[in-house]
């Protein structure tokens, strides 16, 4: 994506979102809409309209009448939207997702027409991929598009089938529908209200209840041939895959925004709430369990998101594995942070009156849609397994060496410990290869998680280094000061190194009757234990930072 907003425009956009939310979306209204299970159509239309907030304009490429935000801009905006309400954010995402097959695979005419409708008319899209029996495995789709021919040339298609869990499903103006043609899976643009096209009721969901989710039913729905996206059959799965790096980054930003939104409520609450003679915020056992580890995991995820967004914007391609890493880390961290925020509020957090309860239910979806966490683990493990094999086992040793070079330049950001994690990961993968452990799907997926954590630790170290050297992206979040980012990165690197080493022992031993041979030595487990030194002091540093009491 060549487009990108200039930093001032992004700042203005973020401020406009905040002002709109402060004016129109008080917590009391969001809680009420959640309780009433209501999609606030008027609010969503105003958020999408160019005359008012115009969020969609930010996503539409410049050449089609939008403002042309890049991946970095989209991440910042998605994070902000999610911090306000994940249901409303999902409604905006649905338009973005729905138009994505057109953006990446449409003909010039299709792009101009449909992107123009989003930009000019604030048209809402829905993205119809999932089916009752085809979720994670989209290849199993049953919706069919039969060609209609006139004098031997295809003039249209008749689409029949059903779609499940479609965001904006009952409220969109335009739908992109994935259907099987004789040439393979293909995307079609279908207008709301055409004959044979109906939708189910607004689903009664656990969370994101402000987002409309509905099933779609297509019974012999006729569309002209120019509604086939890209004009060639069989491109559907490729087009869907092409945008995953990018769209998963958006959902990652949702996890990040919602997770921080929960902590941002728990932190001030703990300053006001006193138990046993002092505020909860002054109790180490409270902050170090319920606040600090979550702030650190969220910031590690932020580092992975920012790095991936920057690389996508600089034209490095689709970065599907990196997108999956970012999504996995941020949505798991966001969900855990929201859960901890309920705990941090005690009994009050367990009631509908407190936003943390709603945030927890809302953020849960981020681990499911746009590819579940388990599908992320499989994607990450398979992708990096290939790198391990292709490099003859040196892929993560090489990454470790890069971190060692960084440590020599800047010893303050935990690069040496992240390097230990990378060396240990390389050894783990090699042992898995020798003993054919990835034949066990559970081990493959646990490796996926360890890979995500390890790559997250490297991204965090690099971000901490750049923050210290005042080289962060000009649009980067400045939530924490460099000294706190460095401390958080050190804590994270220690956690990750320990996780990789101990989980490696667990699965290698667990797979073959307890024999680990020289694995402990190869993993560098003693060095990893020693690297835990200073952990509590660093956690104290992060506590000070997240509570806004920076050391003089
Ligand atoms: C609120 C909401 C909004 C949504 N919005 C949209 C939308 O706008 N458009 C759209 O197209 N879809 C949408 N979805 C669908 C969503 O993307 C799917 O629910 C998701 O991809 C999972 O598919 P599934 O529900 O069929 O679960 P399944 O694929 O059946 O998975 C069930 C469980 O099995 C696990 N699993 C699946 N395959 C494997 C495997 N090979 N190995 C190990 N474990 C596996 C999964 O991780 C999960 O835990 C939405 C869903 C929800 C709930």
Based on the model shown, name its key terms.
alpha+beta, 552 residues, binds flavin-adenine dinucleotide
Layout: helices, strands, pairs:
Layout: H1 7-24, H2 27-36, H3 41-48, H4 55-59, H5 71-84, H6 86-105, H7 108-121, E1 125-128, E2 144-150, E3 153-167, E4 174-181, E5 184-191, E6 197-199, E7 213-224, H8 236-242, H9 244-272, E8 274-275, E9 278-279, H10 284-313, H11 320-344, H12 355-363, H13 373-390, H14 395-409, H15 415-434, H16 441-468, H17 482-511, H18 519-523, H19 525-530, H20 535-546
Parallel strand pairs: 1-4
Antiparallel strand pairs: 2-3, 3-7, 4-5, 6-7, 8-9
Structural commentary:
This protein has 552 residues and is α+β, with helices and mostly antiparallel strands. It has 20 helices and nine strands. It has helices at 7-24, 27-36, 41-48, 55-59, 71-84, 86-105, 108-121, 236-242, 244-272, 284-313, 320-344, 355-363, 373-390, 395-409, 415-434, 441-468, 482-511, 519-523, 525-530, 535-546, and strands at residues 125-128, 144-150, 153-167, 174-181, 184-191, 197-199, 213-224, 274-275, 278-279. The strands form three sheets. Strands 2-3-7-6 form a four-stranded antiparallel beta sheet, with helices on one face. Helix 13 crosses helix 16 (441-468). The protein is globular and about 75 Å long. The model has no long low-confidence stretch (mean pLDDT 96). It binds flavin-adenine dinucleotide (FAD). Flavin-adenine dinucleotide binds next to strand 1, strand 3 and helix 13.
């Amino acid at each position: 994506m060549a487009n990108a907003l200039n930093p001032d425009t992004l700042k203005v956009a973020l401020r406009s979102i905040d002002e709109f939310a402060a004016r129109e979306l008080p917590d009391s209204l969001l809680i009420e809409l959640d309780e009433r299970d209501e999609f606030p159509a008027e609010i969503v239309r105003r958020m999408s309209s160019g005359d008012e907030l115009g969020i969609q304009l930010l996503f539409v490429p410049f050449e089609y009448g939008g403002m042309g935000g890049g991946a970095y801009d989209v991440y910042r905006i998605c994070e902000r939207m999610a911090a306000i309400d994940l249901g409303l954010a999902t409604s905006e995402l649905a338009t973005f997702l729905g138009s994505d097959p057109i953006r990446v695979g449409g003909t010039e005419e299709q792009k101009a027409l449909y992107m123009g409708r989003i930009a000019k008319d604030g048209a809402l899209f829905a993205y119809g991929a999932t089916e009752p029996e085809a979720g994670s495995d989209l290849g199993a789709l049953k919706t069919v598009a039969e060609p209609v021919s006139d004098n031997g040339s295809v003039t249209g298609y008749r689409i029949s089938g059903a779609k499940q869990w479609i965001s904006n499903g009952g409220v969109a103006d335009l739908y992109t529908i994935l259907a099987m043609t004789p040439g393979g899976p293909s995307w079609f643009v279908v207008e709301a209200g055409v004959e044979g096209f109906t939708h189910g009721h607004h689903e009664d969901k656990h969370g994101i209840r402000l987002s409309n989710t509905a099933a779609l039913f297509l019974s012999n729905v006729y569309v002209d041939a120019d509604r086939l996206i890209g004009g060639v059959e069989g491109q559907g799965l490729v087009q869907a895959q092409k945008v995953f790096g990018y769209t998963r980054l958006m959902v990652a930003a949702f996890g990040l925004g919602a997770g921080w939104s929960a902590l941002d409520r728990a932190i001030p609450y703990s300053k006001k709430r006193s138990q046993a003679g002092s505020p909860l915020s002054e109790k180490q056992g409270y902050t170090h369990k319920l606040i600090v580890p979550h702030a650190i995991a969220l910031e590690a995820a932020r580092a992975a998101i920012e790095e991936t967004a920057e690389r996508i914007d600089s034209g490095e391609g689709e970065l599907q594995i990196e997108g999956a890493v970012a999504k996995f880390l941020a949505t798991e961290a966001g969900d855990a942070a929201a859960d901890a925020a309920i705990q941090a509020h005690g009994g009050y957090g367990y009631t509908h009156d407190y936003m943390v309860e709603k945030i927890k239910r809302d953020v849960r979806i981020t681990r499911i849609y746009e590819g579940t966490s388990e599908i992320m683990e499989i994607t990450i493990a398979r992708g990096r397994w290939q790198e391990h094999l292709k490099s003859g086992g040196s892929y993560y040793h090489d990454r470790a060496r890069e971190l060692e070079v960084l440590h020599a330049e800047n010893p303050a950001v935990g690069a040496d410990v992240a390097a230990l994690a990378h060396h240990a990961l390389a050894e783990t993968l090699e042992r898995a290869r020798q003993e054919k452990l990835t034949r066990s799907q559970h081990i493959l997926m646990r490796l996926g998680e360890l890979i995500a954590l390890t790559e997250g630790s490297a991204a965090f170290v690099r971000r901490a280094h750049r923050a210290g050297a005042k080289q962060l992206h000009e649009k980067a979040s400045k939530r924490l000061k460099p000294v706190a980012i460095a401390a958080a990165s050190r804590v994270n690197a220690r956690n990750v190194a320990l996780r990789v080493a101990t989980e490696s022992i667990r699965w290698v031993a667990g797979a073959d009757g307890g024999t680990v041979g020289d694995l402990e030595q190869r993993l560098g487990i003693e060095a990893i234990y020693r690297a835990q030194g200073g952990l509590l002091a660093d956690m104290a540093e992060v506590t000070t930072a997240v509570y806004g009491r920076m050391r003089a």
